[in-house]
Amino acid sequence: MARDFPALPGFYRTLFLYIEPVSTVSPAILAWFFPGASWFHHELIPSATAAPGPLDARTTMAIWQLGNCYLLLGLISSLVFRAIRDALPNNPEAQERILGAGFTALALADVTHIAASFIGLPDELKYSFGKWNPMTHGNITFVILLLSVRLAWFAGVGRTAYYYGKRVKVD
């Protein structure tokens, strides 16, 4: 049974407590274990050439560290957001203020991740969405969706706003 989480209701709760953590922990597992760093590296930019070759030690380390960053994002979404819900069950304003700080950091990371992923694509792929592979869509299309939903949350779309968007009385 889902616990009440006034600052993160309905669709927001489903996306940010379940879907986003799975979508960020999964790349870590793919990079570390199976299919592995070489596969992950070669999937970052869609290519017609198959059979990824071995990577040098520096590149392997960078891919594993990238996997660690993905794991961190998933853990924050999963564990920290649940801690907010559980520690402040009767304080939706505090829930929202803390979630908002986390969402601000994640939204800024979304923007830079989208930009880096798009800019890094070869020119012939940038606007050929049909040629993008699942990794490219995950890094650009899905992150645009996450950013859009974060912005909707800030705007109070589909939820009661307890802090963001409220007028603050100044004495």
TrEMBL record:
Record flagged with keyword Cytoplasm: no
InterPro entries named in the record: DUF7704
Domain DUF7704: 7-158
Bilayer-spanning residue ranges: 12-34, 62-81, 101-120, 140-162
Entry keywords, A to Z: Membrane, Transmembrane, Transmembrane helix
Pfam families associated with the record: DUF7704
Cross-referenced PANTHER family: CHROMOSOME 1, WHOLE GENOME SHOTGUN SEQUENCE (PTHR37019), EXPERA DOMAIN-CONTAINING PROTEIN (PTHR37019:SF2)
Protein name: DUF7704 domain-containing protein
Organism: Suillus luteus UH-Slu-Lm8-n1
